[in-house]
Protein 1
Amino acid sequence: MTVHMKRHGDASDGAEAVGGRLSRVDGPAKITGAAKYAVEQQLDGLAYAVLVESTIAAGKVRSIDTEAAKAAPGVLKVLTPDNIPPLKTASDWFGTPPPDAPYCPLARDITFSGQHVAAVVAESFEQAVAAAALVKVSYDEAPAIVDLSDAKAGDGIPIDAMTKEWGDAATAFAAAPVRICAAYNTPREYQAPMEPHGLIARWQGDQLTVWEPSQWLDGMARTYAEWFGVPFENVRLVSPYIGGGFGSKALALGHGAVAAIAARMLERPVRLVMTRPQTFTGYGGRAATRQTVTIGADAEGKIQSIVHRGVNETSIDGMWVEPLGSVTSIMYQTPNFSSRQNVVRVNSVVPGAMRAPGENPSAFGIESAIDELAYEVGIDPLAIRLRNYAEQDPHAKKAWSTRQLREAYAAGAERFGWSRRSPQPRSMRDGNQLIGWGVAAGTYPVRRAYGEAMVRILADGSVEVESSSIDMGQGTYTILVQTAAETLGVPADNVVVKLGDSRFARAGVAGGSRLAGVMTGAVHKAANAALDELVGLAISDPRSPFHALQANTLVVANGRISSPRGEGPEISIAELLASVGRDRIEAKGDTMPANSTAEERYKNYTTIAMALPHTEGDYSRYSWCAHFIEVRVDEDFGTVRVSRVVSALDSGRLYNPKLAESQWKGGIIMGIGQALLEEGIVDRRHGRIVNNNLADYLVPTNADIPDIEVISVGIPDPHSSVLGGKGVGELAIVGVAPAIANAVFHATGKRIRDLPITLEKLI
Amino acid sequence: MRDFSYLRASSVDAARQASALPGAMLLAGGTTLIDLAKCGVAEPDTIVDITHLKGLDAITVDDQGATIGALAKMSSIADHADIKSRFPAVSEALWQAASAQIRNMATIGGNLMQRTRCPYFRDGENFPACNKRTPGSGCSAIGGVTRGHAVLGTSETCIATYPGDLAVALVAFDALVHLGDRQVAVDDFFLPPGATPEREHAIQPGEVITAISIPASAAARRSTYLKVRDRQSYEFAAASAAVGIEFEADGRTIRDLRVALGGVATKPWRARGVEAALRGKVLEADTVRRASLLAVEGAIDHGANHYKIELAPRVVARAILELGETA
Ligand SMILES: Cc1cc2nc3c(=O)[nH]c(=O)nc-3n(C[C@H](O)[C@H](O)[C@H](O)COP(=O)(O)OP(=O)(O)OC[C@H]3O[C@@H](n4cnc5c(N)ncnc54)[C@H](O)[C@@H]3O)c2cc1C
Ligand code: SF4
């Protein structure tokens, strides 16, 4: 039997255009194993590096004895702070000029357990692992601040930039007839991507090539270039596929510097891949957070005042701010508001971005608190949300570009059957199972930036799109095929998209759910330029069969060119290019203002400093969602299972509903994990996370996930992106944890304000 | 690189001889052994591969009971029609253990011999103190993260939980471990930590588990395994119970009851106190709940694992009551 497989999956009628349900074009390569991930490159002379990490959380390295390791079979080099060349400190992701200080990715001063202190490079991975165990590090240990609840942690550093205030929140709260006040905590959480972090680094003279999973090739290339003091153009990042990032693969990290140093010292390509335990300390997950939310309301539940205080942990010498007031300040209308935030230094690796940083824990606070207010006032949790609906951005005082949240509540409630909810806690059960229904909303800002793309029409009529942006499973390959196909009027099967090589047209970070909006806009623009050139040639080149028509435009559809009213020939793009003697048409387009300087363009792709504020101009731009969730809680065992999810989401126009739905479901699944399972558990005596593997750090399995129904309620938002889409990837996780906590309260009458909701909290 | 020699045993006798050598370890499905070798806990000098030995994977069930060869896979035992009908608790314990991939690889011999999931035991680099791994070095768990640790059968030297599910069902139904010619009751096969937590099994160097046998009983035929955990699948038990009941002819009075606990003790834990309290009683919810509290008699918590003391009796009671309903 022969199977005819279309290259782009099951593109059936209508699926090829933007808005169609085209299947992932990278799917077959991944399923058959043909997709080659960054560290799977086979290079001649490859050597293997293994990291040695600190076993104390605070103190100093007294000495490192490398004799035994050096003498071990196959060992090429043992790297310590004493024998590696210093690098230069690189600028941060805003491009802020760095201090003129050396950077050493191997530490002498220890600020967390698991810090890189040495590395062993050997001919084989096994030899390097064995020799790394022979490196003897001795320390002078100092007391560590293990986490936010450590008595030594203190109140932390106020972050004034996070302060948001209007009206007189304290006075209004004191005067309010209904008042609630509660504290909400979220633990350390980890991105836990399936593909661990790692890279292969190779130097050829002053040229560095790095094969590394990356959410941001140009940003990481800039960091490597600055570390080693070589021009940006000398660094090439290659990252064709990424096995999950969730925010953790956007920046060049210390282990990358170690591998690149080793490659330079040895003049050989070096591979370094973190072990799973190392992925819990080699870079940061989501910071642990604490929030107090106080709400004052009138007797009908109309909010008079919100006072919010937040704290997140950061490391001893790094700064991570998890913006905890981000949802608090915009979700509900209130005349009086105050939000402030501190960060507290603890002995941990500097926390990092993890799916919806800020909005996610922020929503856990405010969306739990509004639920508490609903019970306090005695009205339905959905009704209280509508009663306090923000008709405009209460903080920026600007109109929403689009806000389909009311529609999301309505559609979700209808599908879920919310009107059949019995209001009292503990009033719904099935045998030993207490049943609870909860609702919560979520939001994420529309992050925008400028993009660039190369579009080529080749001699055979096929189309090639190139960009140094990436696909980590969210669907960039696929939607760019659709954008190019629709704009140029060619079948999707004739389009090849190439991503993940920093030699291609430049791209900013794939983070903050911005990439789809940025890149569809850029490809649309470049493809239009290519189309203009194609049509221009067809009209004006004397060798073109359309020349005699004297038309001022032509139609390109399904890969064929004709005149609008059908007179004259109809020929393929390939035939036209042959007739005018061209082997290709090439157009590079970007969406930057035309007068942008080269420096501004460089900055746009290699930093986030040029990102456009989501409240720029007249509008405030956000995606929105409402989650309706049913849980079943075993009344004897305290185990919580999610049995039903209906979520209605407003991401504006969807470029590909099939992929958007998958991303939403992925976010909801991750939210279920956050609500019920995920927590980095720290040994308080050693300041070390002990569940640093996927048997003990629990993420949901299929058995934990019910059918999830997602409903799109978005409408095209012209203020948010060229084609009308808003962010998709981060939105759906926001609000899941509070919806579950609210459902658990409805089921059991117990309010859990500490994530995750594990069984001992309910028995 | 740590070298070891690899030996393919040609017969059970050859496996016995080879495994008697110092530093030798048997390799069955490898799902425990390779894992522990990767985290540096198992450092064998010789690996004695027994996976291809013929005849060791047979499962035979007759009126006397079941005999299961040491190399039978977890998944094939769980799926065996006669095991399902005559020893449902055994099948259910296996289905709820580990993941499909692991069950397809792992053998019943290796399953009995699986090691604790105590995180300190598995990370010698960061936590040198562990009496089970390095006798006399101390116990890192006491005073540390103890959410998964045992509340029954602990000692001052070790509080590690026996993590497996199958052995809990086996201990409830008086199964025997066959070490060639010698047979040991499963309950005696697992040793409490006492002063020697490094000694976990009553097996001598040079001995090989060849089979498990489970005597047939009415209680085994009417049995169940209930496993409670935060994650619905692929997680060790927070608390579990293997329960079997035989009723008198009236269908209500308990003639024989078997109760064993998992996830809460240092070894598969037979709850004889519960059995004795309910034998001869009419099955009734309050009586069962009260008697189930005896399951945790003598339990000691270490902080974060306190919930197990509350949870375990509830699991026992639920298992007994649900079994009683399925008349
Ligand atoms: C992530 C994960 C989750 C798990 N979850 C569960 C769970 O929920 N419940 C559960 O019960 N188990 C669970 N397990 C444990 C799993 O069941 C065991 O790893 C498996 O049964 C071991 O069998 P094996 O054949 O692979 O043993 P191996 O790894 O080959 O051997 C294990 C040990 O037994 C010895 N051995 C093997 N065969 C014999 C023999 N015939 N005679 C004497 N000694 C022998 C070996 O020398 C070795 O020391 C889990 C394991 C993992 C990795
Ligand atoms: S509980 Fe037992 S296994 Fe765990 S650290 Fe203590 S001695 Fe070792």
Note: Confidence is low (pLDDT under 50) at residues 1-6 of chain A.
Protein 2
Amino acid sequence: MSDRSDISVARGSRWMAFSRAPLLRAVVWAAAGFLLGAEVTAALVSDTLLSQDAVIAGYALALLGWILGIGGWEAFVVPWFGGEYRVDEGTGRSRYFRFNTDHKVVGIQYLVTALATLLIAGSIAMLMRIELMKPGLNVFSGPGGYNQAVSLHGTLMIFGVAAVGIVGGFGNYVVPIMIGAEDMAYPRLNAVSYWFVPMGVLAFLAAPFLGGWESGWTAYPPLSVTDGTGQVLAVLGVLTLGISSVASGINLLATVYHLRAPGLDWRQLPVFVWSMVVTSVLNVAFVPFVGTALVLVAMDRVAGTHFFTKDGLPLLYQDLFWIFGHPEVYILILPGFGIVLELLPVFARKTLFGYKWVVGGFLAVMLMSMTVWDHHMYTTGISNARLVPFMTTTEMISVPTGFVYLAALGTLWGGRIRLTTPMLFCLGFLFNFLIGGLTGVFLADVALDFQMQDTFFVVAHFHYTIMGGMVFALIAGIYYWFPKMSGRMYHEGLGRLHFWWMFIAYNATFLPMFWAGVEGMNRRVADYLPYLQPINEWVSAAAFVLGASFVLPAVHLTYAWVRGEEASSNPWRSRTLEWTIPSPPPKENFHEPPRIVDFYDYDGAEDLEWPAPSHPAPGVPVAGND
Amino acid sequence: MSAIERLHPSPSEQTKIHRTGVWLFMFSESMFFVAMIKVRFDLAGSFRPAQLDQTLALVATLILLLSAVPNYLVTRGWRREDGGRATVTLVALTLLLGLAFAVLLLYEWTSLPVDAAGHYGSVFLGSLTFDLLHVVIGLLVFLSILVRGLRLRLDPHGSSLGAAGLYWYFVVAMWLVMYGVLYLA
Ligand code: HEM
């Protein structure tokens, strides 16, 4: 008797535990979806289970199962048909593993996912640098092994780190608070946008099991059409992350448009919010172009069309890809500028120089970014008539970019500069981006690009803008907002050590790559002529030191998140709204109406104790939740 | 209203916010069609094969245009006093007309009068796939609204029905553009 009831209790609680672990349910539903889609397609088209048609159908259902399983079922389907919205969003740490509509939780989910992806893709870069230490090493198996690694590294970095790190992380965490809102405009859409990201990243990471793909992050046909089945997963992963980017772009735009606190005018918006607006417009407008290009590649593979192969036009793909791709690189760098310009006034204790020029510069870059794409195609045999116009537009876009850059310098000029860790990373950003930006102007020149296209000069150039720029800004933002997000302080000495280690190793790795490129080192090739060996040995050695520099903050920040000293609500004496509320902020952000002030008015501020003492303000609870 | 309450959007503001989202979504989606138009003219110029079934396309287009009429009446809240019954009927009518269009298009898609491996054939197949995808999404939304109508009273001024109606106009407009590009160019 008693045995029986014990069993049923155990069974009941096991079932409860299962339904309380949505992540587990998501995995099970995704696996079931994949099997269903793949099996049915395999049966119908009488193919094998892992043929490309089966993988496409299986992935589509897996994605559906994943989203419904994590909480989409309770959040969308049930309420739509008249049920109640009943999602257990969790408390404490478990919130991060669930469907959660709090923009602060979503922001941290994005951030941690992007950082984890950065570490994985960085480890792949280490393997690539081992291969490049000597010609003929062949550490990767098979003839395409090295290019598969390059493709995986680049795709993960661009779509899984650079495009989502700042926009998903800080765009979600900080923007609603900066404009005095309670949450994003569409909290449920926000929760679901995040959960697309791990699936997309997993699609890339699963590709090697289906033979990987060799066409790089750009997936140019004809190679991307004739490549192995892994290419299909890369396409699906980009589409998944694209859906997420468009959704979060729509969300950010509607948030800033509708939810600004009373009295907060567009002309007073913090520059970081402006950078998010501009980025979101680019996401919403241009991601569909890469979507189209990749869907057509998939059709060439499975539906018997010939858009890009046989009699088709491979250059048409490049057109579509770069109509998206060049705005995309501004999607990556403008958020970086947003963070840096937001931080410089705080740490230079000085008004932001030329606010209007910055906003104007952002808008001009946004508009001009759609007029420059052909500079990626100078050497492909496009008509000569297209060369000079695109060279001109490309060189012209450096003008508004220059406004933004000069505003940064103007802010520093005569400031009372505090060399805290976030500030060091901002200065590192300015140094690196100057190199990245100026070499970009060289590459815009048709004659020079004919020499440099597809060499390591280009590899160095875009790493200087994306890694030296965007990633440095991301890290600056992490240190700056760390006390706000965690309620705790990191260790300043370790932070500075991280900066100098990373900054020096970074430049030691990538500066010589320009030279290697000029000397004739080709991109996306595992081997090279022996005269290039010394420089590659140096670059690889520096790259390993650079790779090791990531271990320090990973350990340090994880420890500080749990054990760090308690932070006050405004350790930097900043003036934007997120610093007027407790650290970490309560779920609804504001207990009293936000007071709109001139966010950059630091000129009059007296020289206060620095950093601010860590006792909490009287009457303000230190821990909002968690 | 106290200032802190202003941070929660009111129901009428909520509807406006949802409307903004649908507009942004439609803007984003329309870019797929811009891309497809570029593909069409880059790949096939203004070439148009003689085997295209012009009558079928014209009939399908007219049917789709017709579906905008009940959709219009729904979004204007026509006869919504009678407990939502008229609304359900009108939504069902839109759905049926949309379905008829989709079936005709699907027939065209499967019987495919042109060679899929050729320039125009690729464009044709690709464009129809994109368009059908949008039509099917719209139909699924209407279908789910009908199922929802079995349990809940449908409010034409609520945000979901308004959003669905707006999206359906978008579907109709995009097909008109693609019809011009594929059949008339
Ligand atoms: C950890 C330090 C890093 C090292 C040592 C490194 C090294 C490399 C190397 C050696 C290549 C391949 C060159 C070739 O043969 O074509 C490459 C490609 C690339 N990397 Fe990195 N990288 C690092 C970090 C990053 C970061 C942070 C990003 C962006 C967020 C990034 C984005 C890319 C992209 C987009 C490609 C091009 C892939 C392609 O050709 O399709 N990398 N990297």
Note: Residues A 122, 125, 128-129, 150-151, 153-154, 157-158, 161-162, 216-218, 459, 463, 466-467, 471, 509, 523-524, 543, 546-547 surround protoporphyrin IX containing FE (CB under 6 Å).
Protein 3
Amino acid sequence: MNEIKENQTKSLIQVRNLSKTYKRGNEKIEVLKNLNLDINQGEFVSFMGPSGSGKTTLLNLLGGLDVPTSGSVRIGDAEITSLSGKQLTSWRARHVGFIFQLYNLIPVLTAFQNVELPLLLTKLSKQDRKKHVEAALSIVGLGNRMHHYPRQLSGGQEQRVAIARAIVSDPSFLLCDEPTGDLDRSSANEILDLLSRLIQEFSKTILMVTHDPIAAERSKKVLHLEKGVLIEAQNKD
Amino acid sequence: MKFIPLIWVNLKRKKMRTMLTIGSFAVALFLFGLLTVIHSAFSHQVKIAGADRLVVRNRISLIMPLPISYKQRLAQVSGVKSVTFGSWFGGVYQTERNFFPQFAIDSETYLSIFSEYSVAPEQWELFMKDRQGCLIGEGLIERFGWKIGDRIPIQGTIFPGLWEFNICGIFKGKTPESDTKQFWFHYKYLDERDSSTKGLVGWYYVQLSDPSQADRIAQTIDEMFANSPYETATETEKAFAAGFLKQMGNIQFVLICIGSVIFFTLLLITGSNMAIAVRERTNEIAVMKTLGFSGIRILFLILAESIIYAFVGGTIGLGLCKLYTLQGDPTNGMLIIFELSHAYIALGLGISAMVGFLAGIIPSCLAMRLNIVDAMRRI
Ligand SMILES: Nc1ncnc2c1ncn2[C@@H]1O[C@H](COP(=O)(O)OP(=O)(O)OP(=O)(O)O)[C@@H](O)[C@H]1O
Ligand SMILES: [Mg+2]
């Protein structure tokens, strides 16, 4: 009983003294400096900050796409900074859903096939994969567009397919890098509504980078990244 | 299995490029097939050569004759079972395009040594009775629509004048490999009619009781005739056939050179196509890796693609080549055999797959090692 209680209080994502330095020739660019961050299960957090402040870098580190110069990133029970490249790859497949500004769908695959892609890496049967893909696509409201190719969809629809792809394998958390950055206001709102629904109905954890204050308002917590450190701007709790 | 659709969509992505790549493989393997057909035809002679026979020829050159008196002396060499001889006639039937080999043979002894051939007894009897008689190989008889009883005029070249022969019979090979595209007639007829070469023959064949003694006996024979006006060079029939091939230029070397150039070109074409394909898909590969596709998996997907090109193209090329050979020999029988063997089909597919592998390995390794973060930033 005690252990469970402790697990509940422990945050899902725990970042300690995270630093990332890029070398460009002799010049060292300190993008992230001793950054600390705690995010609980079911939270919706936005990151804002000027261009080049390191928002994408931070998401890449949290998603195990890149390795920090120093510091620790613990997600659930895994210290991902100590995983090997191969371990990171399979960890990503199980725990992270990625959503990008430019959707990044595979143009030669249909919506269905794009969403199925992460499931190909699991042991699910063809039947089960189909069930999961259909469920994910109906959550994002595209049950009737399953066999369309990306070029046959609007930007907002493409992003919804991308969201379906991100949630289909039921990851621990979603990382969204400017998910509405390429969309008009109403499409952007649809995407934000969808993300809010994922939090409310499916208690997902979402970390979202955005330049759009309206988008940021949807989240519970907005963090500003400036000169490599995080400043909490508002807390609607 | 579930990854096959991913490979399939990549093949369909640039249809023109896919077809051209497969087409390159098809053309290359078709050419490869033809080269092996030619090679098989030439090396066939060596393959079918009898192991227990020696060829005795004039030391200076194959076209120089030997005296007929050697027959007796060769027969006396210990270890020699029997002796026969023949001469190259080199006549022309109607036109030079109708080339086929004509041999003046020592009728009494020839078949006892060339036991791979057989003639029906009544036809043989007819042949032995007719001074102008001739025997036609079953591989040649149909070429000009000849039949037993026909009278065949042949224009002499080495032996001047018009020569006429009566077809007395057909000789058959006991195995499918035997060369039956030949024309045989009596040496006696040649010797009687042509005065310039009286008492001379083209070459001798010597059959041995023990093939393992071939080298020793060959040496004995050559020593026996040393310092005579007609010195001999004796070798096994295999060595003789191989040497004959060499005289025609090093066919094998030429074929290997042409083959290598074909495959090297193919490697460059396919390699650059694969490199372009992988470059175009850099972003997609990064996305797939983000989703959890491992580097090795990406490598296999791309490698599979180039090996499929190789296999499909190779199969088409070799298939067409096989069909082509089944149409029959376009040289009208100048090649003893005209066939694409299973072994060469297998070799062709193997080399083809190898080229596919080599062409795909560098691009797919680059894809395997692609850094996600860098690749994503580039767009
Ligand atoms: N591979 C790299 N080598 C050198 N510098 C890099 C590299 N990747 C990122 N940077 C630098 O790190 C800094 C942070 O980049 P990052 O992409 O995280 O910013 P961002 O906050 O996402 O910006 P934007 O809002 O424009 O997307 C930038 O100054 C960038 O130039
Ligand atoms: Mg960014």
Note: Chain B touches chain A through 23 residues (CB under 8 Å).
